[in-house]
C-alpha cells in the first residue's frame, strides 16, 4: 500500500508544480554538490521552483527513480516532464535554454 501512496504523491507533486526539483537538502542548504549546482543555476533564472528534499522523504527518494527512469539526484521536472539531472541543468544554463524552459507558461 505504501508504494502506491508514494507513487501517487510523487505524481501529484509533479502535476501540481510547473517546476519542481527533487534534491538532497533544501535550496537554502543543499546537502550535496550536485544539488547545490542545480539550485544555483535555477536561482539564476529568476523563476520560482518548488522542491522536495528526498533526504527527508526516504519513500520518495526510493520510488522516484523507478518512475522517472533517472537514477540520481537532483531531478528537475518542468510541466510534468523530466528534464534531467545536474549535468543537463548545467548544460542548459550554459547554452541559455534553462531560463526559457523553466519560465512559467503564462509568461511565455
Contiguous low-pLDDT stretches (5 residues minimum) are none
Q: How does the overall form come out from the CA principal axes? A: globular
Number of strands: 6
The amount of beta strand, in percent, is 15-25%
CATH topology, anyone?
Glutaredoxin
Largest sheet: 4 strands, mixed
* Number of helical regions: 5
**What is the mean pLDDT?**
93
CATH class: Alpha Beta
- Output the radius of gyration: 13 Å
CATH superfamily: Glutaredoxin
Account of the 3D structure:
It is a single chain. With 108 residues, this protein is α+β, with helices and mostly antiparallel strands. The protein has one domain: Glutaredoxin. The protein is built from five helices and six strands. It has helices at 2-16, 33-45, 58-68, 86-95, 98-102; strands spanning 19-23, 25-26, 29-30, 50-53, 75-78, 81-84. It has a four-stranded mixed β-sheet. A two-stranded antiparallel ribbon has the order 2-3. Helix 1 crosses helix 3 and helix 2 (33-45) packs parallel to helix 4. The termini are far apart.
How would you summarize what this structure contains?
The protein has 108 residues and is of the alpha+beta class. The protein has 5 helices and 6 strands. A hairpin with a 2-residue loop joins strand 2 and strand 3.
Task: Describe this protein with a few key phrases.
single chain, 19% strand, alpha+beta, Glutaredoxin, 5 helices, Monothiol_GRX, Monothiol_GRX-rel, two-stranded antiparallel ribbon, 108 residues, GRX_PICOT-like, metal ion binding
